[in-house]
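Researcher: I'd like a structural prediction for the single chain below. Treat it as a standalone chain; there are no partners to consider.
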Amino acid sequence: MTVAITAGLLVFGAVYLMMKREMLRVILGFILLGHAGNIVLMAAGGTSRRDLPYGSPEDLSTIADPLPQAFVLTAIVIAFSITIVMLVLAVTGNDDDDTAATAQEVQE
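Model: Treating it as a single chain, here is the predicted structure.
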């Protein structure tokens, strides 16, 4: 239950940040969304019914599933590279990318 609440809060924060117009907030929203996806992937591996990754050899049914862990590790690397690309695009953007202009400034 805690994992679901945590993932829900991260998705809520991501959607809230991505609704803003500033590029940095959108990037932070994507980061939060990536973290929420990682938590959902780890929850798919059965966090409540599994033991440590290296369990006892006599009871193999309690050993943690390594496949969701591998997916999360891959997702972390991909999210990091996407974050770097988005940050570079935000820094090298043009000066006319100002999205915080008011309606009065647009009319002038």
